[in-house]
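Quarterly update from the structural biology core.
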Amino acid sequence: MSALLDGIRTNSFVVIGRAGIDFFTDPGVAVEDAETVTLGLGGSSANIAAGICKLGGQASLVTRVSDDSVGSYCIGQLSRYGVGTEYVKPIGGEYRNSLALYESRVAGHRNVIYRNGAADFQMNADDVAAVDYSRFGALITAGTVFAADPSRSATFDAFARARAAGLPIIFDVDYRPYSWPSPQVAEEVLSRAAAASDMIVGNDEEFGFMAGGIEKGLDKARALAADTAAIVVYKMGEKGAVTFADGAEIHTGIWPVDALKPTGAGDSFMAGMITGLAEGQGLRDAILRGSACASVTVSRPGCAPAMADTATLTKFMADHPGPTDAE
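Predicted structure, tokenized:
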């Protein structure tokens, strides 16, 4: 675990995966009733990178974006949040950035994601070979990068290059069925990625998916921690999380809020936890910090725009009565 924490404590990360554009309704408004929507940066990896930068860390994104105004918007938004875009490359033709349309409400929430001809899936071996891994302390990615080639092969190549440069690998499972050709392919590829990672973060459904049944997910997380990963975080929504590290199990609760929508929680959890560890917090405190970030994000509109900066997070944790007891 020491090598993993040493890498994280540099607080400088290379993040692989998609940036997208989000359209979201005003609070409580269904799509069919909306007269206006708000624009924001989205995409799991872009959100994680933006969240890290908002909390004082450094991050550069590696991806492809469409060579059009939407791609330009994504690059501009990444720069606005302080994310390095030196490895974000445009691609022409019919490839397009992912687009999400979702409602700022919990009851009846709907989230539609358009991924046809996704530009980020065109990230290739040359793109990851161009990265100067020595600039960073750790590599972070989310599972969607593995859903199609050439992005899948390129990301496994990036894993090998990062490992050769001494960087630990941090993997957010982030299973999105609509991106994959079949559940069988997803199970095989995501399990391979997990086995190659030093830290794995996922929810109960994602670990259950890799294990062949949700009832087997907790044992899958425990086995990965015992076998290959230094830290495994098993998230359970409102029930909190169980984290496996150094043979111990850490049970943590959540920071209850009146949620506006469910989107963005996992990305902000990752950003908060990683930057907490980078600042020297213990694992339990860093996990609770990640949980607080998730609560802030679900209580505000958007994904990247809703993620906490340092001042917001500090005030939230100071004013809140505290997390729930662990399950």
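Residues 12 and 50 are 12 Å apart (CA to CA).
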